[in-house]
Design brief:
single chain, alpha/beta, TIM Barrel, eight-stranded parallel barrel, two-stranded antiparallel ribbon, 11 helices, 16 strands, globular, OxRdtase_FMN_N, Aldolase_TIM, oxidoreductase activity, acting on the CH-CH group of donors, NAD or NADP as acceptor, Oye-like
Length: 374
């Protein structure tokens, strides 16, 4: 039986299908406040069972890139209410991804030295910041400083505040960004985390920050409204191999079994050093984690259907396919060709916020960009 287009009960949130729009940074807010274009963009894609927003910084300190919409100040709330109302009017469900980049930032973004688990900088990568006044572009991240023990507690509180704001803005839940080499990943890594307090050393200590954050948010909004995103063995943003990686992830699955969450979301990063992922890891994680499991990473309709049929996954997240195909669900259901997105407009607000963002038509509504195979 084809499960991709069947309903799913996500811890009490009813999804009309098992297709998820994955979180994708699009940098379309000039003043970091969500706008009408953001509302249109998400509403256009509301036929997905679940939408997950781009990463939303939970404080000024958490921001690593220019033009990303925040969710921590009172002026952010009305814009997000406009977004959630637009999605719900189309019958969609939407989670807000809460984001702290850690060391993946530059002092020009917010006037603050980036923070991390330690002081090791990200060297072989860039963030989008100010090259000079009035000129933005890619720059190497600034060297970070280590969060103090008390500051870790403060960051936990920042996440709780943003989670509450998300629910107040009408989001159906939140996803904690613990993937892709950002702050939580920086604590999980034994190579980057050289701390000697309760947040460093053993696997349990390195997991403590994230688990305390999950528990604090659950106490505020309920565990059934929380998802967590991981990128096991991911190598984005100068994030290297570390000792005990496999054990870190398998014990994380056990720890999360004790918490009744909405889902765990794995980003497989299939084109980025996929050989680093041990054979059989996905199946082993599936066996270890008993809750709803979602994955993203180069899925096609056929691969998605196969993974669902085998029981390896419960939900399938699609990323870049959603950029040029707002009606991706309908295209996959009907076998219609997919449009190819313009990579030069994936990010940024140069010229027009809407160009390459809200101007991709549904199939048959206008002349389509050159189709790519589904």
């Amino acid at each position: 039986m084809n499960k991709l287009f069947t309903p799913y009960d996500l811890a009490g949130t009813s999804l009309k299908n098992r297709v998820v729009m994955a979180p994708m940074t699009r940098t379309r807010t000039l003043n970091n406040i969500p706008n009408e274009s953001n509302a249109l963009y998400y509403a256009q894609r509301a036929s997905a069972g679940l939408l997950i927003t781009e990463g939303l910084p939970i404080s000024d300190e958490a921001r690593g890139y220019l033009y990303t919409p925040g969710i921590y100040a009172k002026e952010h709330l009305p814009g997000w209410r406009t977004v959630t109302d637009a999605v719900h009017a189309k019958g969609g469900k939407i989670f807000a991804q809460l984001w702290h980049v850690g060391r993946m930032s530059h002092v020009s973004v917010h006037g603050i030295i980036p923070v991390s688990s330690g002081t090791i900088p990200a060297v072989d990568t860039t963030v989008y910041a100010w090259i000079e006044p009035e000129k933005s572009g890619p720059v190497q991240p600034s060297a970070p400083r280590a969060l103090t023990t008390d500051e870790v507690k403060r960051v936990v509180a920042d996440f709780v505040k943003s989670a509450r704001m998300a629910i107040d803005a009408g989001f159906d839940g939140i996803e904690i960004m613990a993937a892709n080499g950002f702050l939580f990943d920086q604590f999980l890594s034994s190579a980057l985390n050289t701390r000697t307090d309760q947040y460093g050393g053993s696997i349990a200590n390195r997991q403590r920050f994230l688990l305390e954050t999950i528990d604090a948010i659950a106490a505020e909004i309920g565990g059934s409204k929380i998802g967590v995103r991981f990128s096991p063995f991911g190598r984005l943003y100068d994030f290297g191999v570390y000792e005990g990686e496999a054990e870190t992830w398998m014990s994380m699955a056990d720890a999360l079994n004790d918490r009744e969450l909405a889902f765990v979301h794995l980003n497989y990063q299939p084109t980025i050093l996929v050989a680093q992922t041990p054979p059989g890891f996905g199946a082993a994680f599936r066996e270890a984690y008993k809750g709803t499991l979602m994955a993203a990473g180069g899925f096609t309709k056929d691969i998605a259907e196969s993974e669902l049929a085998k029981g390896e996954l419960d939900l399938i997240a699609f990323g870049t396919a959603y950029i040029a195909n707002p009606d991706l669900v309908e295209r996959m259901q009907n076998g219609w060709p997919l449009s190819e997105g313009d990579r030069t407009t994936y990010y940024g607000v140069s010229g027009s916020i809407d160009k390459g963002y809200t101007d991709y038509p549904n199939y048959g509504n206008a002349t389509q960009p050159a189709p790519a195979k589904a």
